[in-house]
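Task card 7
Instruction: Convert sequence to structure tokens.
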Amino acid sequence: MPGARPIVYENSPDWYLCSKCEESFRIIRTYIQNKILALHKFEYAYINVCMLTKQTEIRASTPRKSMFVKINPQKILKYHNRGSGKTNNISLREDECVICKSTENLTAHHLFKRAVFGEKDNHCIATLCLDCHVEVERKITELEKSLLRPLDGIFTFLQSLLLLKKINFEDRNTFLIHMVEKNGSYSFSLENRTE
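Output:
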């Protein structure tokens, strides 16, 4: 395949995508990751409350035992190409960091990431200094990794569906990808929900 280069993710087989398909796969991968994370809103709230109230013991999070993600490849790619519509004109609510009380280098921290939860929770912000903001984001990144790591196989599953032509990037059909945990690992299945 001319112009193709390998795209390899953790625990995935080597196979080749042209640069356009590689970008489409990346967009759909990010969409699925964000949908999985959105199912865990309580965990985001928990991490934020622990950090904002200076709790040192934070329990580990694991993904739900059973969940599904609804995807329509054509709509996902079409929406992505429109842009996110995010606005950054947010005024700070406090004149000091809510964690350390510093008044230097203040930033707005979204308690629910806009990339995951959208703009509907845009009013849920806390004023943090840059150092505290970096620490809170580090904890949130740890949470996201702990939630997504057990589900890494979903992307190998998605690659296989593309390779076997069960789905494609121009697909107008809506699919449900079911994820079920059994004995410590997840299995994945595809359901065609043509609209």
